[in-house]
């Protein structure tokens, strides 16, 4: 059976980008067709300046939102990364497999290290080694497919390279995975800066739709989305990124092809109105289920306990095998 792994960082409130690019497919498709593991990857949240209480709160909120989005613990394994030691154990071996040049080439490292420096913060070593930990997340589960948004495909490519290199050096140990981005919604752009992707850790929330935003807040953000000075509605990602993003979101939420949907509109106002309503409708059930799950903290705890146990049982033998393969003496 196909094995799927994917994760989400507790670095901010989950966004429409996270949902359309990743989470929706996990809930609607992946958990039904594969042996799927999904993780709130909290260790990755420590690669940038963080507030301990906030990370703890956001981790719990992310788990609750994933359940609200429809992940069913009977059908998939849902767990918190730091509850399973194998991730950190394997990450070290992959740091010993990757080169510093390859890590420095990662776009996410370049962007996030530049942002930290611009904010007068130092850059943590773990921001550079992040892809080794992400590769460990994936390889520890003998993963075949990694459903992620466009922005993560470079990290999955590196994971493939590391798996192949490790296997060549030390004998076959890891399954070589591949990224599977969605057809629509793979890169939702920021509504205020449609040349940059919507990201949950970004400072300015005006261009970001959060999954828990009230309907009126969603409407306001969409109606204020930056477009351009043109009048007619056309789908042109390069030339008119703001309008193209709205058409992408409409297609991802309501169906259809972005370029064809464009033909149905003669004004930006009408398009924005429809986008706002489509997003509100997609998020409505999620917000409602989230509210009822918050009232059941014991249930969420039980899901995480069982999820960690199941994940450990899969990862343990794989990581033990990797430890033996590189030449580390097995304990007595
Ligand atoms: P951060 O700003 O902290 O990096 P993020 O919003 O990028 O947060 P991640 O935890 O890095 O979220 O990624 C979780 C998943 O969501 C990944 O599969 C990623 O590809 C996907 N994703 C993130 N942002 C977008 C987006 N704007 N459009 C589509 N998919 C996205
Ligand atoms: Mg990200």
Explain how this protein is built.
- The chain has 332 residues and is mostly helical.
- It folds into 2 domains: 3-181 and 296-325, 3-Layer(aba) Sandwich (Rossmann fold); 205-292, Tyrosyl-Transfer RNA Synthetase (Orthogonal Bundle), CATH 1.10.240.10.
- 54% of the residues lie in helices and 6% in strands.
- The strands form 2 sheets. A 3-stranded parallel β-sheet has the order 1-2-3. A two-stranded parallel ribbon has the order 4-5.
- The longest helix has 29 residues, at 297-325.
- It is globular, with a radius of gyration of 20 Å.
- The protein starts with a strand and ends in a 7-residue tail after the last helix.
- The mean pLDDT is 96.
- Bound molecules: adenosine-5'-triphosphate and magnesium ion.
- Residues 8-9, 11-12, 15, 17-18, 20-22, 148-149, 151-152, 186-188, 197-201 line the site of adenosine-5'-triphosphate.
Give the arrangement of secondary structure elements.
Layout: E1 3-8, H1 16-33, E2 35-40, H2 52-68, E3 77-80, H3 86-95, H4 100-104, H5 107-118, H6 125-139, E4 145-146, H7 153-170, E5 178-179, H8 215-223, H9 241-254, H10 258-262, H11 268-294, H12 297-325
Parallel strand pairs: 1-2, 2-3, 4-5
Bound molecules: adenosine-5'-triphosphate and magnesium ion.
Adenosine-5'-triphosphate (ATP) binds next to helix 1.
């Amino acid at each position: 059976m196909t094995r799927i792994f994917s994760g989400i960082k507790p670095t901010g409130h989950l966004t429409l980008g996270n949902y359309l690019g990743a989470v929706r497919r996990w809930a609607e498709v992946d958990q039904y067709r594969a042996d799927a593991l999904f993780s709130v990857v909290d260790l990755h949240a420590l690669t940038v300046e963080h507030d301990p209480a906030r990370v703890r709160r956001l981790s719990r909120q992310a788990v609750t939102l994933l359940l609200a989005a429809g992940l069913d613990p009977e059908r998939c394994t849902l767990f918190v990364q730091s509850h399973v030691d194998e991730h950190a154990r394997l990450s070290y071996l992959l740091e010993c497999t990757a080169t510093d040049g390859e890590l420095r080439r990662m776009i996410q490292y370049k962007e996030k290290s530049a942002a930290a420096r611009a904010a007068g913060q130092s850059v943590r070593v773990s921001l550079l080694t992040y892809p080794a930990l992400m590769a460990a997340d994936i390889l520890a589960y003998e993963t075949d497919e990694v459903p992620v948004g466009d922005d993560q495909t470079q990290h999955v490519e590196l994971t493939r390279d590391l798996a192949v290199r490790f296997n060549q050096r030390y004998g076959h140990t890891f399954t070589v995975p591949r990224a599977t981005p969605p057809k629509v919604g793979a890169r939702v752009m920021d509504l205020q800066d449609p040349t940059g992707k919507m990201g949950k850790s970004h400072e300015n929330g005006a261009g970001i739709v959060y999954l828990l935003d009230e309907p009126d807040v969603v409407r306001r953000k969409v109606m204020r989305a930056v477009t351009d000075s043109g009048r007619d509605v056309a789908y042109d990602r390069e030339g008119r990124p703001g309008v193209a993003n709205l058409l992408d979101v409409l297609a991802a939420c309501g169906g259809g092809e972005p370029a064809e949907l464009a033909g149905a509109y003669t004004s930006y106002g009408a398009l924005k109105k429809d986008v706002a309503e489509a997003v509100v409708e997609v998020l409505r059930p999620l917000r409602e289920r989230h509210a009822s799950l918050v009232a059941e903290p014991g249930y969420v705890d039980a899901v995480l306990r069982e999820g960690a146990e199941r994940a450990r049982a899969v990862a343990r033998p794989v990581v033990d095998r990797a430890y033996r393969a590189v030449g580390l003496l097995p304990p007595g």
